[in-house]
């Protein structure tokens, strides 16, 4: 069976609440979470210090063949003392039946394209009429399917968001759309680079000169080797080297999504990781890897209206494991219920210690 395709999340334009309206169908970072209709709006708290957590990432990720819309919301503590710890992150999974999902209003023409492609069912996602494109998220049904009840749900959501913002001074990060690209689409760039290197070697052989060596300035033959050895000594880790090589095609990726795929570790994982990834707290079943946050995201985590939140949120990668069966118990008559907490595993950036 072929390995799942990795999908890369990239930071898109800033989400201006005066011009754009997000919903649970939107992929975004920061801001307040857009919960599915009827889901609990209670903000999670830090497992270490008890402070309310900042909303970091929202991903709309329905599974193929499932009747549910599905969201993952990731939250983190912004306290410096809690930085880089797994127990200060929370991942919540919410689901709602398709007919219960609110229709999204038409965004302005200038809204950026941020279409969601997280799942195999992405090809079936509709495009809003008059929206001029994705407008910050992929829709599953045509606009008219939401109806009047959808408009009511949207209004209810906005009220809930205002209530959330007023509770306990919840830290709010700047809000950006997340756009998506398939990692396999970047392989062409890697082929072009390989071809360029081949041409360079042919030129060096024909002209009798080593171009790479001349970059050191003195023409010495050991300059490149010395640089390589310094880099290797600094990191000293084959896992880190593999991580850097893997993301080199798209260093700006802030999120990697590969439901049921393999995580990309930034440092050697603990030998007992399988034991550390606990069973689903809802059904007791096993969990599988679904997504991870990447180092490029750290510099984007800034407090809204100039708040200095970014200094306290540091990590190398945050890996999220979710219930393999995506279990869900719908609320009575609502098609939705309380979010299910999933498992987060945080690895720090090996280079962070160089600046401590």
Summary keywords:
356 residues; 19% strand; alpha+beta
Structure explained in plain terms:
With 356 residues, this protein is of the alpha+beta class. The protein has one domain. It contains 6 helices and 10 strands; from the N terminus they run βββββαβααααβαβββ. It has a 10-stranded antiparallel barrel with strand order 1-6-2-3-4-5-10-9-8-7. β3 and β4 form a beta hairpin. The radius of gyration is 22 Å and the shape is globular. It starts with 6 loop residues before the first strand and ends in a 9-residue tail after the last strand.
Question: Can you describe this structure in just a few lines?
Answer:
The protein is α+β, with helices and mostly antiparallel strands. It has helices at about 145-165, 185-205, 210-215, 225-235, 240-245, 275; strands spanning about 5-15, 30, 55-60, 70-75, 90-95, 175-180, 255, 285-295, 315-325, 340-345.
Let me know the largest β-sheet. 10 strands, antiparallel, barrel
Strand order of the largest sheet: 1-6-2-3-4-5-10-9-8-7
Number of helices in the DSSP assignment: 6
Cα end-to-end separation: 44 Å
Number of spatially distinct domains: 1
**Number of extended strands:** 10
Strand content: 15-25%
Which quaternary structure do these chains form?
A: single chain
* Averaged pLDDT: 75
Mind telling me the C-alpha Rg? Answer: 22 Å
Low-confidence stretches: 105-116, 121-152, 154-166, 213-221, 227-235
